[in-house]
Amino acid sequence: MGAAPEIHPRPAAADRRDLAWWVDKSVAILVFTGGISAIVFILGIFVFITKEGFGFIFGSLDIGGFFGSTKWRPTSTPPTYGILALLAGTASVTGLAMLIAVPFSLGAAIYIAEFAKGKTREVLKVLVEMLAAIPSVVWGFIGLMVMNPLIINAFDVPVGLCVLNSGVILGLMAAPIMTTIAEDALKAVPDTYREAAEAMGATRWQIVWKVVLPAAKTGLVAAVLLGVGRGFGETMAVLMASGHSVNLPTSVFDSVRALTATIAAELGETSVGSDHYRVLFTLGILLFVVTFAINLTADLIVRGIRKK
Amino acid sequence: MSQFTATPRNHRQHRRQSVVKAIFLLMTVLLIVPVLLILTFLIVKGAPVLSFEFLFAMPENGMTAGGILPALVGTVWLVTVALLASVPVGVAAAIYLSEYAPDNWLTRAINLAIINLAGVPSIVHALFGVGAFVLFFKFGTSILAASLTLAIMTLPVVIVSTLEALRSVPQAFREACWNMGATRWQTIRKVVLPNSVSGILTGVILEVSRTAGETAPIMFTGAAFFLPFLPQGVLDQTMALSLHLFVISTQVPGVPEGFPYGVALVLISLVLLMNAISIGFRTWLRGRKKW
Amino acid sequence: MVAATTAKVLLRGLSVSYHGKPALRDVSLEIGEHEIFGIIGPAGSGKTSLLRALNRMDSFVSGMRVAGDIILDGRNLRDWRNLYALRRRIGVVFPLPVGLPLSVYDNVAFAPRLRGVRRRAALDEIVERCLRRAALWDEVKDRLKSLGSLLSGGQQQRLTIARALSQAPDLLLLDEFSIAVDPVTTMRIEDVLKELKHEVTIVLVTNLVQQARRLADRTAFLLSGELVEVGDTEDLFAGRVEDERTRDYLEGRFG
Asked: pTM of the prediction?
């Protein structure tokens, strides 16, 4: 050989943990902290609301009376804390909202995903996304100022702040989100399914009904579940549009009060550490646990789809 | 269609197809149009109230006259502090999930936590804010406590949109960098982040839109019904647009009829404008070709 | 040919698996300093896995497991504490061309910057030299600022080669580099590889048997994850094989 071979640093000498290595390590730790923070926050939420509600659960809570009584009289002497009417309020409003929102949002999702094309599709998607962005206090305001007189005039009732009002408002609120998630679920069905059905001469509707919907079933269930969670947890709109009287509703024109609205309306009047204050946190625990369960179920369903 | 002879069956199917399509279109329209009508109604009722004075004067006479300046300024304070807290944490979390996280139980737990942060009712976030920031950390009812509550609540918005932006950068680019001996962070800084920063920005704007509209989380943590002055720092209380709308439409007698419509219009314009900017920005990004 | 006295790379019982599925089983061989070492075999024979293991990509690819020893310059790769420093010495070209979404200039200056080259003049010199060697300079010299990811497939492949060269590697791993390149350019790059041999040890994975014949000093034949045999390329192509399967493959009877 002519020229002397170029000398490379021996591997042991090159193998130093240099600045870049340490910077990378530090960033890894930093972003890990960011990732973990989500868990810390969700646990923190649970710990802090439990901490405040604890005194009530182990002090004055009488389970039978709590869930079984309709008497929510926190300011009477002696106070009674029966949440049955509040549960009924939340359930009736959410139920009516879903009755309205589920068919319409599934219909809209089917139209956007399976029938609409090109520009129409894009415009509809953007519109739905914008509707989802309207703040809940504005929805409440609409219930108060628009729906209320409409209901009074249309049905000849004295007050228009009722199950019907808040149910419709909540339905309109939840629908865009459900539409978006349901549309994602429909889009996740591979096009090969549609093409195969088309090749056999099926019409667009037959394809949707016999092929796409069954394939997207679980995703649609998840969309509905998330809509339920959203309706269940909604606060401002229900506070403003439901009439806010503790009541077991017998018709859609009855005023009701929801769990969330109760907390929002009464927390400001309580003194820290009082039974009333603590029972409101206990309602918070209930809301947390139920929405957690709903979200967990929806997530498991969606994860199940992805595995397939 | 035209090249086939139309049979009766074909006709029937075609007609049924059109009917079905029309029904779904109707459902979509019924979902969207009423809301558009309501928004138009808000504009018609609210627009006459809007004026320079309405936006930039202090409220007077128990909020039945004057303007909404403290609420407007307060919302800007709340959103800014919330963003300062949530954007760094959210971006870090998204970088971890996209670039570092192994496929294990901890990652699944983080994802579940994010889903639940987004799903927990806003009033529960408010309770948490009271228990943690107002009482335990002794921030009192203040912009700081309210903004931190908002920050945690809207954290999933930043995380999810940042994740989407990071994941849109093809994996092959990362592997090419790693093969040259770049560390994960060097790869992120030189290739991944520069190509996703606009996507992240889209998410941040979306978060502004979400944060500005929230009411329940700030009711007991830092937003006040009425304050005759502007906040001077993060430990002050403040008014906010969203709460102001609630207050003057339900709690204060004698407010002129147009006033709440004006506030609603300002709030919704702010929120929808931010949302539109975010959507427009995203559309523009998708149309731009870099690989 | 001069048999390598000190092995550049020594593989002892190397196995690679992905999520428990074996891709390479119990391979032992030596790669000499400053030789072009060819690896041939049909698709799925474990060629690419071998290269990935050499570059320690198992630390980045989830589910990838490496067993056995890889000894580079007398040091076990397992003992490396800073894998980034290891990879900086090893240039890799994979079959799918990847132009990074940076300017052409920054693509080639990426690796030099990683090892601390900051001076503009020095970077200019490295960029031009590497682009020339990869037979790309004439086509891109007027648009060094345009995005590398928007070049044509063939240009991106040569950009990838230029990037690997810019690492000033002492080990260059090439995985079917000519897939996206036209025959004339392939020939030009092959000439460059022959020159480079005096500075760099080259491992050339190829499914073009004739390319191995033209370039490789010694060649290994892999078949479904196992090493069938290693020998001087001349011997193998002259039919002096130990295993009939090698002859069958070289003569194009399967693959």
From this structure: 0.90
